Amino acid sequence: MRACVTWTEIVGGRGERRSIFVLVSSMSAGGRSVRLGPRIVRILRGGGWEVAVRLTTPGDDPALIAAHVSPGTVVAALGGDGYLSAVARGCHESGARFAPMPGGRGNDLCRALGIGTDPLARARNLARLGMVPARRAGGDIVGSIGPGALDARVRPLDGMWVRSREGLRLALGIVSIGLDARANILANESSLTSGPLAYGYGAFAALASHEPTGVSATVDGRERNMSGWIASVSNSGRFGGGITLVDSSDMSDGILEVCHVGPLPLSRALVVLASIVAGRAKAHPAIDIESAKAVSFTAPEGVVAMADGDRIASVPFTVDVAPGVVSVLV
């Protein structure tokens, strides 16, 4: 009797069929992931993957779902940045391999990882890893993709643990409480489907209503006054659908970057914001960047923090670097 194979299936002469569990968000980008899901599954199956699919609804917890798979399982997530971070949290808990796929408006994680913003291209790229090639009697591998090809594309990915009265969350991009957080909220409320357009609208709309506030923080144990327009903690350096806020951010160095723009007249703040949206943040002298491993925000109490496109906490909260928190398949 043929032995039961849990995660791979022998396919006559070709090798072993790898398995992938695909989580699809029903909410991201107005249902974009749902519309693309069937095509992505066909592409993956065409490459040899044994595909299991779960369409998640607002009542589901993608982190909890990913936390209950077997260690080493490849878990793909098709959705926006907040959805991807939730699945990454679950993969951290289970020891699964996290395969992000761009399915939102901004897709900043996939941009930062070099995956790009085309979910079908990402699926075709992953499809090439679907088979573990068979070996001939002499030990030669049948096919051009060796059995270690998947392992070679897995690497540790840093994140940020965000602790507040609302619980513990994992963020992968940028945590913000200033003007950029307000811009994110307004972008989410807009009907624009393009991430960069939505954020650009949100950023300049936020200027009309945002007042620089007094922000108290502790950076690696040192008290800091982070009052002004922007107070953010960066892991990926990307936000807003491709805007680079901190180009020195590295998602594998175990270090975070604190970005601060202090009190400025509105006219100067507008210039700073324009430089950020245009991708020239590095060159502006009003933008202060410093490295850190732990940041605590203590005031003003109740101010909402955003990360990966979603609300993640409210002041007071802490942000700690999470080195190699999940294994990511790029």
From TrEMBL:
Could you confirm whether the keyword Kinase appears in this record? yes
PROSITE patterns, per the entry: DAGK
In this entry, which stretches build a coiled coil? none
Keyword Kinase set for record: yes
Pfam families recorded for this chain?
DAGK_cat, YegS_C
UniProtKB keywords: Kinase, Transferase
Gene3D superfamilies listed in its UniProt record: 2.60.200.40, Probable inorganic polyphosphate/atp-NAD kinase, domain 1
Q: Mind listing the GO molecular function terms for this protein?
A: kinase activity
Judging by the UniProt lineage, the source's domain of life is Bacteria
- For this entry, the protein name equals Diacylglycerol kinase
Q: Which organism is it from?
A: Schaalia meyeri
